[in-house]
Design a protein that fits this description.
This protein is 54% helix and 4% strand. It is mainly α. It has one domain.
């Protein structure tokens, strides 16, 4: 672990504290998510974003929260793959029931609230800190290709069965959340 990663891990940032500074993004397709991911990756020349409070003065892209760009892009790809692979982890029943009650609001983006994922789930859907932007983008691109070729989908672990359009909507809201924390300097 290098000194940047050590400093980064010591000072986890609560998303709630920086939400007001996020970029407000609105994606309508996975192609738009890829365009923004590609644009940000090009700005960092394939390397990675730096956490804003630890960034070098010449950093082109900084992140406000805990995931650097590469990790966020890889995470988006891995969660999109759940549409084909499904997920063995089961959220507690009350959480699943509440999520399904608010399914329409979640898919439309009207309900946005951060929540801490259980460690067991994080191990499946969150790549390591060291994943650079070019690698994370490649994971996301592969996941989008796989999704576009899929004919049937696994139920979402929180929302239950979703159509192709609902998976796209959920993935767009998810990308708006994570990529919104990436700021261009």
């Amino acid at each position: 672990m290098d000194s940047h990663e050590a400093n980064y891990r010591e000072g986890r940032i609560e998303a709630r504290k920086v939400m007001h500074r996020r970029r407000r993004l609105q994606f309508t397709s996975l192609a738009e998510v890829l365009i923004e991911g590609t644009r940000l990756t090009e700005l960092v020349e394939g390397a990675n974003s730096q956490r804003e409070d630890l960034a070098d003065p010449d950093a082109r892209v900084v992140h406000l929260a805990n995931m650097p760009l590469g990790q966020a892009l890889g995470h988006l790809g891995r969660t999109l793959n759940l549409s084909s692979d499904g997920l063995a982890y089961r959220f507690p029943l009350p959480m699943r029931l509440m999520s399904r009650l608010f399914k329409r609001q979640i898919l439309s983006g009207a309900l946005v609230a951060p929540f801490e994922q259980p460690a067991e789930l994080n191990r499946v859907v969150t790549p390591g800190f060291e994943l650079i932007a070019a690698e994370g983008l490649a994971e996301l691109q592969a996941a989008v290709r796989r999704f576009e070729e899929a004919r049937q989908f696994q139920p979402n672990a929180l929302l239950g069965p979703l159509s192709r359009e609902e998976w796209v909507s959920l993935s767009c809201r998810h990308a708006e959340w994570h990529l919104g924390f990436m700021l261009e300097r």
